[in-house]
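Session log. Operator J.P. requested a structure for one protein chain; no other inputs attached. Running the standard single-chain path with token output.
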Amino acid sequence: MTAKKIVVVSSGLSTPSSTRQLADRLATDAVGLLRERGVEVEVEVVELRDLAHDITNHLLLGFAPPKLEAALESVASADGLIAVTPIFTTSYAGLFKSFIDVIDPQSLTDLPVLIGATGGTPRHSLAIDYAIRPLFTYLHAIPVPTGVFAATGDWGDGGDGVRSLPDRIFRGASEFAGLVERTDRSQRVSDPFALDRPMGHLLGGLAGE
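Structure written below.
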């Protein structure tokens, strides 16, 4: 049986990063659940902080340097994507959105996505459903029902009557693992109406360069 490939995209800016920590926890639970079911898994982590200059250059010039090209190819060949971003000013990080903008518009079609986000306070958790989930839905990905938000206070005991962070991570990972197990990348459907270049390139007159 061919191993399932999970790509983990983390757009945390600091070191160490709570965004990367959440991404790792989500991946660990998902991989563990898949292996319990006898599914072999390969995991690749993409740290967008390390690709920031390449992403900007790609947006400006329409050319992906080798490291960014490798990351884009990994997403395109994945059986599942774990995408985690910090929340800045009530929405996803600009670096996160810029990476999504340079992905081939058809790469995410029918791809299971586990969404994670981090922020200072629980009130930012709504950004998962009003900002991040619609982004992946628009790109014809399959976001799992449970998005996992981790506020600063969630990295403690979580015993305030709200479902604890480990419980939320496990629930999201369970939904994600179920979709990844059934995913056949060879059967993923391409959208015939998708743009062959990001909209920013077309508006910037770069489509023919």
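Operator note: The chain has one domain: 4-203.
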